[in-house]
Amino acid sequence: MSGGDAKKLVRSPSGLRMVPEHRAARSPFGLDEPPWVPDKECPRCMQCDTKFDFITRKHHCRRCGKCFCDKCCSKKVPLPRMCFVDPVRQCAECALVSQKESEFYDKQLKVLMNGATFFVTLGTSDKSELMVCRLSNNQRYLVLDGDSHYEIEIMQISTVQILTEGFTPGGGNTRAVGMILQYKVPGSEEEAQMKFTAGEDFSCNKKLSAAWLAAMHKVSK
């Protein structure tokens, strides 16, 4: 593991977290731990209004920081956006959000990091280059490798437009065949554009390219 991607184990009131040693290396998908609502400010459960006492104990949701009784905050769910090592206690509402995000981390994020092959066209050029596109290990950059090499910071991407084909007026399935990406050029307020097109030849796996584009669409959301 390179120095820039090094991680350390830290303990917080919410649990153990594996975080980057340097804040600049944080994933753009990460979330900061929320401040907990002070115990003295929540005499009752913030969901069901049950009064806390010696028997009914209070618990804090690790995602929103609010205070709940055990019944309203009993689920322990993975929370990769905060880098928790183990599943952590969350209220019902937050648990639903975290469960949906876990699918992204378990499936789409891995697809993006494995990469796929596309013909890439810069701006209004009529020439394209065959390149392997993938998400960097620290999830901060979109890396493109071919005869040329590009790295686009995820946080600088302003628009992701997925190109599809197969739609008919009467309905029918569509498939992702490409993408138009707009992003800010470092050190400038100008925007640049790249067009990604899945190759038609046998060497380009269409299914893999379509899965990569679908995952990229998730990132844009």
From TrEMBL:
A Gene Ontology molecular-function term? Answer: zinc ion binding
Kindly provide the name given to this protein in its UniProt entry.
ZFY21 protein
Q: What keywords does the record list, in alphabetical order?
A: Metal-binding, Zinc, Zinc-finger
Gene name of this polypeptide: Zfyve21
PANTHER family annotated for this entry? ARRESTIN DOMAIN-CONTAINING PROTEIN D (PTHR39490), ZINC FINGER FYVE DOMAIN-CONTAINING PROTEIN 21 (PTHR39490:SF8)
Q: Where is the FYVE-type domain?
A: 39-94
Alphabetical list of Pfam families matching this protein: FYVE, ZFYVE21_C
